[in-house]
Amino acid sequence: SQQGEEDPQALSIQEGENATMNCSYKTSINNLQWYRQNSGRGLVHLILIRSNEREKHSGRLRVTLDTSKKSSSLLITASRAADTASYFCATTPTGTASKLTFGTGTRLQVTL
Amino acid sequence: EAGVAQSPRYKIIEKRQSVAFWCNPISGHATLYWYQQILGQGPKLLIQFQNNGVVDDSQLPKDRFSAERLKGVDSTLKIQPAKLEDSAVYLCASRFGTSYTGELFFGEGSRLTVL
């Protein structure tokens, strides 16, 4: 079963614009991670935010976490064509032994 | 550092045939995962190993799927007999520790097509 659900399912923007993706999940969590997947490839870890954190930055990435709303957002600033990929949030539910459950994903298309 | 290795990358079989996928995780990684990713969906956890023991296999269709992790290193995922709905990419991932912190490292995946 999918724990998280990303919104929107697909997003198309122009290079230089910002891209925002949202993730909602169902149960309490220990942490939330974001991954990127280029077409036909494996997933690559982007950033991890713990349940006691509200915001985290890594380069052009900004992640927020609202545990009261069970939601997270990923912001990619000044997007590039190379950012074209699918983005997934993944959660480790409280009480599970390092189990990581992925959401449905957002397909981002960045055009020149 | 070598990444997670998977083989074969592609496999086409007829329904009711069997198939096996192999995964070699990053050296020293205690936790190993197999995920199934159907086209257009997120990865779904099939089985999780810690060293050579199974931690979670609640979503593994045990009537047709089996997996093992030899000596806490390499792992094999087998499907027998395959069904049309098993067409998917099978992703192997590993993690250094056994706690819930830390990222997963994924292989490139094994794409299965069942005809």
Your description of this structure?
The complex is a heterodimer of chains A (112) and B (115). Chain A has 112 residues and is mostly beta strands. In chain A, strand 7 and strand 8 form a beta hairpin. Chain A has no helices and eleven strands. The N and C termini of chain A lie far apart (36 Å). In chain A, 0% of the residues lie in helices and 59% in strands. The model of chain A has no long low-confidence stretch (mean pLDDT 93). Chain A is globular and about 45 Å long. In chain B, strand 5 (44-50) and strand 6 (53-56) form a beta hairpin. The radius of gyration of chain B is 13 Å and the shape is globular. With 115 residues, chain B is an all-beta fold. Chain B has no helices and eleven strands. Chain B has strands at 5-7, 10-13, 19-24, 31-37, 44-50, 53-56, 65-69, 75-79, 88-95, 105-106, 110-114. In chain B, strands 2, 4, 5, 6, 9, 10 and 11 form a seven-stranded mixed β-sheet that branches. In chain B, strands 1-3-8-7 form a four-stranded antiparallel β-sheet, with no helix packed on it. Chain A binds chain B through residues 1-2, 4, 30-31, 33, 35, 41-45, 48, 50, 88, 92, 96-105, and chain B through 4, 31, 33, 35, 41-45, 48, 50, 55-56, 59, 91, 93, 95, 97-109.
Oligomeric grouping of the chains: heterodimer
The proportion of strand residues of chain A reads: over 45%
Give the strand tally of chain A.
11
Can you give the mean pLDDT of chain B? Answer: 94
Total number of helices of chain B: 0
Low-confidence stretches of chain B: none
Helix and strand pattern of chain A: EEEEEEEEEEE
Mean pLDDT of chain A equals 93
| Principal-axis shape of chain B | globular
Strand content of chain B: over 45%
Q: What class would the helix/strand composition of chain A place it in?
A: mainly beta
